[in-house]
Structure formats: C-alpha cells, structure tokens
C-alpha cells in the first residue's frame, strides 16, 4: 500500500510517496508563497502530489490516501483548518478544496502530531503503543499517539501541549494566557532569559558569542556556552531544563506514556539536553517506585513531516 504525505510549511511545501513502513520512495518540494489565496496554494499542493506519484511510477489514484501536516490548528474530523498563523489561514476548508483535484481520501492534522506519528511508525518510538512527541522550537508543539493513532481530542484541538499552563500568572503567551508551557520550554524562552541574564552579567561568554548584541542571541549560542560551562549560560540552561521537566512530568502524571520524544531545534543540543532533562524528571516523578516514560530524542529529522503525514492515511 502506498501513501502520499505532505509537509505544509509557511516557507516551503514538501511531499513524498511513502510505503506502509514509512519509507520514502520519491519526494519533491516547492515554495509556499504564503501571501497567495489558499485556493492557489492548495492547487499547487495537489500538483506536487501528482508529481511525486509520477516520480514513484504511480498515479495519485493508485495511493490509499493523501495526508497533510499543517503548522496550525486542524480539525481532522471536518478537514477544516480553523487557524494557521504561518499561512494567515482562518477557517480554510482544506480537504474540500483538495478533493477538487484529488479523488482519494485526504486527511489533515497538526504538524507536531504528524511528526509524533512518524517517530511512532519509523523512528525512535517505533513499536510503542503510547507516545508523546514534543517539538521544542520557536513555540512548543505536541503530538499524542495512542494505540498507534494520533489523538486529537473530542474537538480536534487536543495535544496542544505548548499551551498547558505550568505557572499561574506566569509569562504572557502568544495565545493570550499566562504561564503556558511553551513560555518556558521553547527556544524563545532560552533567548528571553539569556537576554535578561546578560544585561546583569555582560561578562558572560554569551555576549562575546553574539558580538555584544543581545538581539543576536539564539538558543544554540546559549546552549553551546552552557556546554562550555559559562556560569550565566549554565544558569539559563538549567532553568530551561527545569521548565521543560515540569511539563514532561505533568504529561507523565496524566498519560503515563511509554515514551516521550523530544524534537525541534532545541533537541539538537543532543545528549547534553537529554541527560539534564532525564535527571530533572527523575527528581519530580510522583511514584518513584514505578517505572516511567523513557525520554528520547527524535530520530527522523526533516523527513518526519512527510512520513508522518503519509501515515495519517494508514
Ligand atoms: Zn499559550
């Protein structure tokens, strides 16, 4: 059985022909040009699906389904995208529009859910029944996979792990609430705290690394300086890990999954991040006598979007 997976982003669109094991057989990409009307973008997505099918030696009508990962809120049940900030979409009838061009089932879901599904089929969480995927990027996205299927809740808006409130009256979030997990566990949080820290401690290695301009601080600079034991960077990093661990422990306490997978830009910190997070989580788990979720790094990298989207059709 073959599937097409589409990874729709604000800048680029990638698509691939994928087999039932999550192996990509052909792939292609194009620029999104997000300023265009959604109808034009969707027409191009359909054309890209035809192209990757042809490259794989089949027709779109031969695939079982087309799955699409979207960087926003999706309603998989109606196929409508209520909100996608990157594309400026509100209430876009995505599946209905795609079906004008493609006579196969079309399934949409959130990009973090899709990446989580990819890992659960062909990545680090393969073989697990229950897994939670957390993307640590500009924001924090979440994907919950239960019995091999993505869980989106009763209204399609579940698994918004980034907006789980971890601190009452905490930092203001882009969603309008305060104290959301992503205010503490995103790359944005590292940058915010590092800027505050270097204002008080301009002697930090972070300042030298960003050329004396705190506007140029990014998460990688801070994490690199923490790895090199710069005390200011280390404090920022340790606080970050604590915030991340609070959210992870809340997920463990609610869902008790087999595995929690960390992806997104911050996860490139690798073992340095993983060891610190595991240690912090260990301190916070509620029932210490019982085993708890493994914490691992995502393995599939940039292909996860295509593979996971394709697997929505399984
Ligand atoms: Zn929020």
Q: Could you walk me through the main structural features you see in this protein, from its secondary elements to its overall organization?
A:
Helices cover 36% and strands 23% of the residues. The chain is α/β, with parallel strands linked by helices. It has two domains: 2-121 and 303-311, Nucleotidyltransferase, domain 5 (2-Layer Sandwich); 124-298, ATPase, nucleotide binding domain (Nucleotidyltransferase, domain 5, 2-Layer Sandwich). The protein has a five-stranded mixed beta sheet. It is globular, with a radius of gyration of 20 Å. 47% of the residues are buried. The model has no long low-confidence stretch (mean pLDDT 95). Zinc ion is lined by residues 163, 173, 175, 177, 180.
State the main characteristics.
binds zinc ion, alpha/beta, 2 domains, globular, five-stranded mixed β-sheet, Nucleotidyltransferase, domain 5, single chain
SSE blueprint and pairings:
Layout: E1 2-8, E2 12-19, E3 24-31, H1 38-55, E4 65-70, E5 73-75, E6 80-84, E7 89-92, H2 94-98, E8 106-110, H3 111-122, E9 130-136, E10 140-146, E11 149-150, H4 182-185, H5 187-200, H6 205-209, H7 219-227, H8 231-255, E12 259-263, H9 271-284, E13 294-297, H10 304-311
Parallel strand pairs: 1-4, 4-8, 9-12, 12-13
Antiparallel strand pairs: 1-2, 2-3, 5-6, 6-7, 9-10, 10-11
The protein binds zinc ion.
